[in-house]
């Protein structure tokens, strides 16, 4: 293949009519070598010194090169860790813009830029070749991927039902999914999986990381893996472990196409805050060897060491314009080429942190919100990291929604029976206006959840008081210590009918509040079917039945109950108000009002009763059924009555002249509830009821 200087943009490996153009950014390199491998990936068949340089971008063009070519880079430059430079041309490096990786990483001392056995640690220099232990990048023709049609959906976030799940874990054990597709993108797009999601009423799957990621060496030594995938190394390559044996990356777009045809959007959990290269003692896979001082944030006065705002050893440097460009190009690629509908940004405070601290007007936020492609998709932040000032719930730009951990904790603690939670419960149920309304956002800014991948499953939340993480190999020290959970008398699974009945009601209580609250509900896959992780609240390394969805043990009554809740949410628009409602129950308008169990409007003194665990709420909305030229005022109302206490309590339905004839839509009592002549009904402990009525006036 003949080489010419080629062109700088686009970065990565780009097919054109004459061959393939290669382009790589490195500000501090002295030489960049493109390495070509044979089809096995084991033999370095040729290498080319990249002869083009344009504004710190190295580039060349190989005429006659085609899709399928395997390649990597060797980058020359100073090895001066004290100054932040870790160039080592003995290490084969992955292209940050690689669309596909072929082969597995095999942990070996040669993967490290320094002599693994030296007393000088990373100040030493290793001369062993890492190529035999590294996967290779493959040139991809994206034109064939774009030929797969994807029907647009554009479901508003306010009307969305999110379903957080793991590509492999959700499909691995489904007996109706073909063996070759289990654990893959193709499996997630298979008919049995889609039918299950449609039965529930899910509008979007939020997938744990699908960017190609590597396992950490310390996990491999324990016989474990990074199951969740929060250890990215290639921001444009689908994780090779989620492809079928054919390894075609178009399988991802095909999955999106099938889910869209079923009315289900795809949101990706993306990890741009750190990479798989770890701290200063970590391996050299890509960024560290290409230009460590540009791609990572380093301590200003000790550039040998990484800033670790992530807790994962390093922090990706989005303050650098070329690094920011990489992230933006990655996001656009997944939208325009792979067809996804949005992103959830892991540890998003890292992405918005400038040198002086977190800033909602940071370069990353400004770039993404002005981008003509990305401003149209769903943007969700995990609004914290472990760095200084990292907890930023409610402080993100208006284009973002945020995971609301205050909602999670309030709901858990309220239903557990903690004292003094009435005001906090009401604020979270109302949509958390105290966090999100100040900059003009509505309830959809709050992503409400009871559980997520990180922590107990819903079943375990009501089954275990303590974490049980011994399988992680860290002597049960890892994972959250306080889970706001309760076992109701016995730790773990039991045969006690009374305890199991309470647990069953509590799962339904929490799911009901989640689906009826203002804001956007997010279900953790398996919560609707009583899936257990055996008390493990940090199953990040459990790529086995602990972390997989068990399709043989599904609580179908709970599945049906969840589907009923989702159906109710879709039926009643007032559960998805666009703006925060600060009016009481309203005649012919949107309203939300709180009552005590005597049917009286809540007063300041009522809210201060710390031992009270009962409450009612009425949510109203204008039906808007009138035809053109006709004046018709209609109000639809829902009444939710809640008893989080340990005793049966009687409730009086609020007596409002325009809202009468309440009909019970849903309850979790042992028998059908009866409203007596005094509009009074009994609620057993740990239970709730939902009523509905409608009032219409025509002129």
Q: Summary?
A:
The chain is of the alpha+beta class and 699 residues long. GO terms for molecular function: amylo-alpha-1,6-glucosidase activity.
Write the layout of secondary structure elements.
Layout: E1 3-4, E2 12-15, E3 19-25, E4 31-37, E5 44-49, E6 52-54, E7 57-63, E8 70-76, E9 79-80, E10 85-86, E11 101-102, E12 136-138, H1 142-146, E13 162-165, H2 167-171, H3 185-188, H4 191-200, E14 204-207, E15 211-213, H5 217-221, E16 232-238, H6 250-261, E17 265-270, H7 287-295, E18 298-299, E19 302-306, H8 321-336, E20 342-345, H9 348-351, E21 353-354, E22 357-358, H10 363-370, E23 378-381, E24 401-403, H11 405-416, H12 422-429, H13 433-436, E25 446-449, H14 458-461, H15 497-516, E26 520-524, H16 556-571, E27 591-595, H17 604-607, E28 614-622, E29 632-643, E30 649-652, E31 663-667, E32 680-683, E33 687-698
Parallel strand pairs: 13-14, 13-26, 14-17, 17-20, 20-23, 23-24, 24-25, 25-26
Antiparallel strand pairs: 1-7, 2-3, 3-7, 4-5, 4-8, 6-7, 8-12, 9-10, 11-12, 15-16, 18-19, 21-22, 27-28, 28-29, 29-33, 30-32, 31-33
Helix pairs in contact: 11-12, 15-16
């Amino acid at each position: 293949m003949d080489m010419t200087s080629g062109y700088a943009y686009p970065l990565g490996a780009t097919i054109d009519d004459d061959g393939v153009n290669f382009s790589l950014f490195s500000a501090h390199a002295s030489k960049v070598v493109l390495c070509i491998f044979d089809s096995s990936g084991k033999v370095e068949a040729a290498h080319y010194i990249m002869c083009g340089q344009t504004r710190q971008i190295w580039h060349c063009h190989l005429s006659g090169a085609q899709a399928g070519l395997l390649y990597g880079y060797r980058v020359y430059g100073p090895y001066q860790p004290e100054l932040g430079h870790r160039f080592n041309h003995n290490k084969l490096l992955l292209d940050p813009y690689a669309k596909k990786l072929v082969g597995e990483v095999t942990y070996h001392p040669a993967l490290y830029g320094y002599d693994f056995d030296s007393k000088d640690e990373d100040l030493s220099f290793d001369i062993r070749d890492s190529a035999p232990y590294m996967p290779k990048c493959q040139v991809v023709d994206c034109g064939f991927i774009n030929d797969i049609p994807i029907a647009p959906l554009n479901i508003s976030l306010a009307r969305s039902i999110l379903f957080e799940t793991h590509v492999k874990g959700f499909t691995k054990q489904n007996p109706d999914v073909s063996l070759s597709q289990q654990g893959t993108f193709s499996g997630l797009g298979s008919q049995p999986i889609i039918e299950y999601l449609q039965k529930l009423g899910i509008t979007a799957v939020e997938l744990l990381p699908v960017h190609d990621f590597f396992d950490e060496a310390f996990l491999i030594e324990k016989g474990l893996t990074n199951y969740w995938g929060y250890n990215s190394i290639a921001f444009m390559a689908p994780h090779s472990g989620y492809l079928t044996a054919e390894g075609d990356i178009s399988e991802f777009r095909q999955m999106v196409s099938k889910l869209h045809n079923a009315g289900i959007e795809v949101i990706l959990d993306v990890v741009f805050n750190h990479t798989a290269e770890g701290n200063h003692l970590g391996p050299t896979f890509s960024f560290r060897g290409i230009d460590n001082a540009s791609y990572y944030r380093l301590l200003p006065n000790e550039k040998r060491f990484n800033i670790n705002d992530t807790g994962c050893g390093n922090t990706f440097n989005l303050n650098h314009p070329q690094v920011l460009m990489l992230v933006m190009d990655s996001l656009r690629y997944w939208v325009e080429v792979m067809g996804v509908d949005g992103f959830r940004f892991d540890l998003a405070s890292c992405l918005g942190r400038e040198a002086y601290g977190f800033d909602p007007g940071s370069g990353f936020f400004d770039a993404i919100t002005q981008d003509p492609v990305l401003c149209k998709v769903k943007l969700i932040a995990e609004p914290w990291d472990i760095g200084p000032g990292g907890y930023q719930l409610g402080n993100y730009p208006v284009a973002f929604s945020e995971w609301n951990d205050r909602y999670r904790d309030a709901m858990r603690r309220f239903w557990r029976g903690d004292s003094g939670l009435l005001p906090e419960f009401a604020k979270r149920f109302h949509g958390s206006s105290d966090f999100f309304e100040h900059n003009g956002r509505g309830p959809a800014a709050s992503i409400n959840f009871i559980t997520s991948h990180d922590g107990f499953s819903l079943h375990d939340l009501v089954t275990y008081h303590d974490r049980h993480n011994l399988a992680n190999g860290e002597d049960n020290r890892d994972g959250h210590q306080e889970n706001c959970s309760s076992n109701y008398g016995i730790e773990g699974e039991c045969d006690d009918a009374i305890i199991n009945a309470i647990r069953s009601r509590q799962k339904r209580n929490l799911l009901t509040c989640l689906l009826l609250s203002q804001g956007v509900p997010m279900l953790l896959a398996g919560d609707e079917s009583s899936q257990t992780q055996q008390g493990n609240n940090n199953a990040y390394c459990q790529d086995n039945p602990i972390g997989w969805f068990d399709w043989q043990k599904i609580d179908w009554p709970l599945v049906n109950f969840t589907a009923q809740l989702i159906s109710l949410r879709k039926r009643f628009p007032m559960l998805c108000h666009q703006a925060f409602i600060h009016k009481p129950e309203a005649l012919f308008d949107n309203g939300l009002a709180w009552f005590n169990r005597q049917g009286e409007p809540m007063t300041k003194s009522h809210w201060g009763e710390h031992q009270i665990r009962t409450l009612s709420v009425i949510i109203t909305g204008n039906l808007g059924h009138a035809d053109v030229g006709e004046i018709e005022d209609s109000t639809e109302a829902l009444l939710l009555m809640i008893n989080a206490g340990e005793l049966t309590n009687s409730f009086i339905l609020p007596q409002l002249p325009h809202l009468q004839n309440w009909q019970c839509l849903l309850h979790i009592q042992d028998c059908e509830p009866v409203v007596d002549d005094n509009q009074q009904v009994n609620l057993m402990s740990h239970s709730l009821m939902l009523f509905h009525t409608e009032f219409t006036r025509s002129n």
